[in-house]
Amino acid sequence: MADSTSMFDLIRHGEPEGGPMYRGSKDDPLSEMGWQQMRSAVTESDRWDAIVTSPMLRCVHFAQELADTRGIPLHKDERLREINFGEWEGRTADEVMANDGERLSQFWANPVAHTPPGGETAKDFNRRVTESWHHWREELAGQKVLIVCHGGVIRMVVADVMNIPLEHSFSSVATPYACRSRIQVDTSAHGLFQSLVAHGSFKASTP
């Protein structure tokens, strides 16, 4: 195994049109505020060799703009779509709590055992996201990479990096709009080691 150090910055999309809700597979573009949040979350000092993005509008529009502006290769990956929340999609947290509060609480307590009605299972979601993560981790080894994606996707990747059980993966990491996470991946003859080195609002690009 060739020695390499990779740096992956994951950023959640900004606010979409329609504001906060269980959006899931509902494909809304960024609002004006969302564009401001995304543009403010990156600086000229950030340096990436490649960008990987969810194909959903709230991610891909910003990723495309950034790739075009900086001349960076852009890769779109269907596996990085947000989890499908089924019947909860398009409804706010308060609306879901008022009408389906028990199932919502059960989902957050243990998403493996409690799938949103008509939605995607946590296991299926986790499987496709981790497949994507492992693919790009190998494909872009040794590079600095930006991944533009969703709150649920970031939770799955962080859970893989930190060995968080899937049952606790949704409730263990806060991912506000335009939140950034940095993961370092080192490979050598001793194996592969990955670690979360930053999470939240940060702009420095130097590891």
Task: Identify the notable features of this structure and list them briefly.
single chain; 207 residues; alpha/beta; Rossmann fold; six-stranded mixed β-sheet; globular; His_PPase_superfam; His_Pase_superF_clade-1; alpha-ribazole phosphatase activity
What does this molecule look like?
This protein is of the alpha/beta class and 207 residues long. The protein has a single domain (4-200), classed as 3-Layer(aba) Sandwich (Rossmann fold), CATH 3.40.50. It contains five helices and six strands. The protein has helices at 32-41, 57-70, 93-109, 122-139, 151-162; strands at 4-12, 50-53, 74-76, 144-149, 180-188, 191-200. The protein has a six-stranded mixed beta sheet, with helices on both faces. β5 (180-188) and β6 form a beta hairpin. α4 packs across α5 (151-162). It starts with a strand and ends in a 7-residue tail after the last strand. The relative contact order is 0.23.
Unreliable residue stretches: none
Q: State the end-to-end CA separation.
A: 23 Å
Shape descriptor: globular
N-to-C SSE series?
EHEHEHHEHEE
Strand content: 15-25%
Helix content: 25-40%
Number of helices: 5
Please give the radius of gyration in angstroms: 17 Å
> What is the highest CATH level, the class?
Alpha Beta
Output the structural class: alpha/beta
pLDDT average, as an integer? Answer: 94
CATH topology: Rossmann fold
Sheet having the most strands: 6 strands, mixed
Strand line-up across the major sheet: 3-2-4-1-5-6
Number of domains: 1
Tally of strands: 6
Q: What is the CATH homology-level superfamily?
A: Phosphoglycerate mutase-like
Q: Which architecture would the CATH scheme give at its second level?
A: 3-Layer(aba) Sandwich
